[in-house]
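Notes from hallway chat w/ T.B., transcribed later so I don't forget. T.B. wanted the structure written out for a chain they're using in a teaching module, and asked if we could keep both sequence and structure tokens in one place. Agreed to drop them here.
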Amino acid sequence: MNSNIQKRVDSLSWNDAEESLSARGYAVTDPILSPEECASLVSLYNQPNRFRSHIVMERHRFGVGDYKYFANPLPDLVENIRTAAYPHLAKVANEWAKALGDKKAAFPADHAAFLKICHKAGQTRPTPLMLHYEAGGYNCLHQDLYGEIAFPLQMVFLLGQPGHDWEGGEFLLVEQQPRAQSKAEVVTANQGQAIIFTTRYRPVKGSRGYYRVNLRHAVSRIHRGTRYTLGIIFHDAK
């Protein structure tokens, strides 16, 4: 692993991130990627051999835009982020599983071991992806689930500067608590920062213990410019 990426990830305030994730379902990190690293990732988008599939959102009524899933082997930068961030997030994931009484959802401490669980369940295709939107583009509310095995947290990196490279295109989270109206939140970040957020639910403490609160995410309409992001999903797909 690139030791520089490892140091950057390890130096993040993970205690603050855990508190924010538990309270709101998301956390925004300090910058992890440099502008040069962001540009290098964007440059991969026009290299078809780096990706296993290309999804045009309009064809599936997912929104307006497109995204591409990386093929194995993943780019070093993507692989290093995924490997470095997973152990920190696995601690949170295990705390959540414990709170919800889910004894079957114990996550190993390193990502390679977790991928073995995915592969045993038939989930062998890599899921890190890049997303691309032009003016008028957007992404509908959804969850990134690709099989029986799902890691409860994921990350998205902004590869450009909001307000400079694009206008609009805010990251949205919508939370649905039982027997209550949905609650939406706009999450802001800048180039090179990661938004960590829940894949499908977070635990919330009630009068009778913890219960699951469902969340979905989306991207609002782009008004101007071009928006690229990198998505880091920790479980593989069927």
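Follow-up for T.B.: The chain has a mean pLDDT of 96. Might be a good example for the class.
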